[in-house]
Amino acid sequence: MRVSVLVRFGNGPLREINGEAANFSTTGAFFLVPAEVASNPRIENGSDVELTFNFPAQQQPQKTVRCRGKVLRIETTPDGCLGIAVKFDESELSTQS
């Protein structure tokens, strides 16, 4: 599923990254992003991260999930993307009509 993701690593700025949520649950997520995302700022295991997922509106209302957590794993895919696994410490669901 393609989603728009706003990402903040540590105390850095929010950045909009077009990624793909490969796995999403109430406790964590694994998503794919372009490899250049990791270069500035540097992303490492244990990095604090704040994510805002804007899920496409299949029907109204549209759902947005804001999560805070820590990076558990980073892996490079064969096509050169980064897969980032995050364990959520907290999350919040909101809906927009």
Provide key terms for this protein.
97 residues, mainly beta, six-stranded antiparallel β-barrel, 6 strands, globular
Q: How would you characterize the overall build of this protein?
A:
By secondary structure, the chain is mainly β. The chain has no helices and six strands. The protein has a six-stranded antiparallel barrel. Strand 5 (62-76) and strand 6 form a beta hairpin.
Architecture blueprint of SSEs:
Layout: E1 2-9, E2 15-24, E3 28-34, E4 48-55, E5 62-76, E6 81-96
Antiparallel strand pairs: 1-2, 1-4, 2-3, 3-6, 4-5, 5-6
Q: In angstroms, what separates the terminal alpha carbons? A: 21 Å
Tally the beta strands.
Answer: 6
Helix content: under 10%
Strand order in the sheet with the most strands = 1-2-3-6-5-4
Short description:
The protein is 0% helix and 66% strand. It has 97 residues and is an all-beta fold. It has a 6-stranded antiparallel barrel with strand order 1-2-3-6-5-4.
